[in-house]
Design brief:
CATH superfamily of the largest domain: P-loop containing nucleotide triphosphate hydrolases
CATH class of the largest domain: Alpha Beta
Number of strands: 23
Shape: globular
Structural class: alpha/beta
Number of domains: 2
Bound molecules: glutamine
Length: about 550
């Protein structure tokens, strides 16, 4: 009988449920168990692909092309596993499959009701993921916080599953303890309310992860335990941590792995693995890294009210960290607003203060001219530059305008009437957009890319065929391949018989690192397994003294 752990959140969202879920899964894998993680998002969208970054933050893409939540990225980065669509569900996808079943007479003329049929469909999806992955323990994170109306049906699924298999299901509440400053204490009351809310849904948490600025002290632990009827042992301190990969080690200090196994009636299958020791060693190394490397990400700001969203490019940030750490550098990452360069070109000079610059993926026209100015500056001043997806496309636009002499060349995404459409929409995309088929229809997920020998890409990968994850509708226009190449742009990776450019770069004797990818290498970078292109980029950045 497989075991199930559910992770839900109390008090407020954004306190690290995803990292907590990934950490619990990681610890259990260290004890020899085969694990998998599932993310449930309570919104009605079928997937995250149609939402804008202001609404959703980064859209993570799985190898099978599923567009999903950034927590899936945390799971992959911690577990070093490739997940698929079975590991992700939303209210929308649950209803969609239920309605499809009903339409095909699966229910034999019965009335299909919100309860129990929706929670039962949730349970079936979890079981399907378990069967497909053969996981012995499935760890499922329920997005949002308890008490939100849209969470209720998922909590009901937990209740039903727990009722049927009380010894095989655990519920972990990740809750936040606010702190108001000098002389104040960590407050437990909001957590107590969150537990009451769970109680009213027929659930009592087995573990509470107390997220806070500081470690939890005995008095607060006692308070939660006494008022909510949870053993003190099962209240785990989870203070803020700069390096998120340290969090499983912190949980282990509180013996969380053994406690969870015991609660599930399991024993460790083996002593903690080599992976654990490597992990531990790496954290100690990272905490002692002195040499800084400064990387600037040139993009547009995502503002909501007075706040700027930080997590729109979380995978890029993590990929920079993985590669920098592995090479012995402490990365310092700054977000540079490309719109500022449009207003005042002299601001471009700040790019000289960075060892390397990244132009991340993106959509639409805001900030694009500023990014193109930054690319020109990096090309002319030989600052290492890595372009990701839109980044590559804008590198091609810049090169076409300023080196090939194609004045006002552009991507048709921004200027459909440009005289030189060096970036144009993929042929198969035109029809889809005409029919308003936007959801899940970009060129998505893993596609095979051929790597040409003697290039920077080859130096990084050391192999001729790689699988990389994509998410785009536009491409380098085949009509301009020749003129770009004639002027010195190298297509170091292509796919579909040279039709699609996957990586473009400048020769190493012209520029130390001027390379862009049509795919998103950041989606395949993991802790302890950095992506080869990021390694090469950081190496060259380190050589560029500021
Ligand atoms: N907007 C571009 C396209 O659709 C790039 C997408 C991206 O950066 N992910 O092709």
């Amino acid at each position: 009988m497989p075991k199930y752990i559910f992770v839900c959140g109390g008090v407020m969202s954004g306190v690290g449920k995803g990292i907590a879920t990934a950490s619990i899964a990681k610890i259990l894998s260290w004890y020899g168990y085969k694990v998998t993680c599932i993310k449930i998002d309570p919104y009605v969208n079928v997937d995250a692909g149609t939402m804008n970054p202001l609404e959703h933050g980064e859209v993570f893409v799985l190898k099978d092309g599923t567009e999903c939540d950034q927590d899936m990225g945390h799971y992959e980065r911690f577990l070093n596993q490739e997940l698929t669509k079975v590991n992700y569900m939303t209210t929308g996808s649950v209803y969609l499959s239920l309605i499809q079943k009903e339409r095909s007479l699966f229910f034999d003329g019965k009335c299909v009701e919100v309860v129990p049929h929706v929670p039962l469909e949730v349970i079936e999806k979890i079981n399907r993921a378990q069967k497909l992955t053969q996981a012995e323990i499935v760890i499922t994170e329920i997005g949002g916080t308890v008490g939100e109306y849209q969470n209720l049906l998922f909590l009901e699924a937990v209740r039903i599953l727990k009722l049927k298999n009380p010894k095989d299901v655990l519920l972990v509440l990740v809750s936040y303890l606010p702190y108001q400053g000098e002389g104040m204490e960590l407050k437990t009351k909001p957590t107590q309310y969150a537990i009451r809310t769970l109680n009213s849904a027929g659930l009592q948490p087995d573990f509470v992860l107390a997220r806070a600025l500081f470690p939890l002290d005995e008095v607060r632990r006692e308070k939660i335990s006494f008022n909510c009827g949870i053993s003190k042992d099962n209240i785990i301190s989870a203070p803020d941590e700069k390096v998120v990969y340290k969090i499983p080690l912190n949980f282990e200090k509180e013996k969380m792995g053994i406690k969870i196994l015991k609660a599930l009636n399991l024993k460790p299958k083996k002593k903690k693995t080599n992976d654990f020791l490597r992990w531990q060693k790496e954290i100690i190394k990272i905490e002692n890294l002195k040499q800084e490397i400064k990387i600037g990400i040139v993009g547009k700001y995502f503002k909501t009210g007075n706040f700027v969203l930080a997590d729109a490019y979380i995978s890029v940030i993590e990929a920079i960290k993985h590669a920098s750490w592995s090479l012995g550098y402490q990365p310092k990452i700054d977000w540079l607003n490309s719109e500022e360069y449009e207003k005042d070109k002299s601001k471009l000079e700040e790019l000289k203060n960075y060892n390397g610059i990244i132009i991340p993926g993106g959509f639409g026209s805001r900030g694009v001219e500023g990014k193109i100015l930054a690319i020109k500056y990096c090309r002319e001043n030989k600052i290492p530059l890595l372009g990701l997806c839109y980044g590559l496309q804008l590198m091609v636009v810049e090169f076409a305008r300023n080196v090939c002499g194609l004045k006002d060349a552009h991507t048709t995404e921004v200027n459909p009437k440009t005289k030189y459409p060096v970036i144009d929409i993929l042929e198969e995309q035109k029809k889809l957009l005409k029919e308003k088929l936007y959801g899940g229809t970009m060129r998505l997920g893993d596609w095979e890319c051929e790597i040409k020998k003697g290039t920077i890409a080859w130096k990084a990968y050391k192999t001729t065929k790689v699988l990389e994850r994509h998410r785009h509708r536009y491409e380098v226009n085949t009509k301009y391949h020749k003129i770009l190449q004639k002027n010195g742009f190298i297509f170091s990776s292509t796919s579909q018989n040279d039709l699609l450019v996957e990586i473009g770069e400048l020769p190493q004797n012209i520029h130390p690192f001027f390379l862009g990818t049509q795919f998103h290498p950041e989606l395949k970078s993991r802790f302890l397994h950095p992506h080869p292109l990021f390694i090469e980029f950081i190496k060259k950045s380190a050589e560029n003294k500021t």
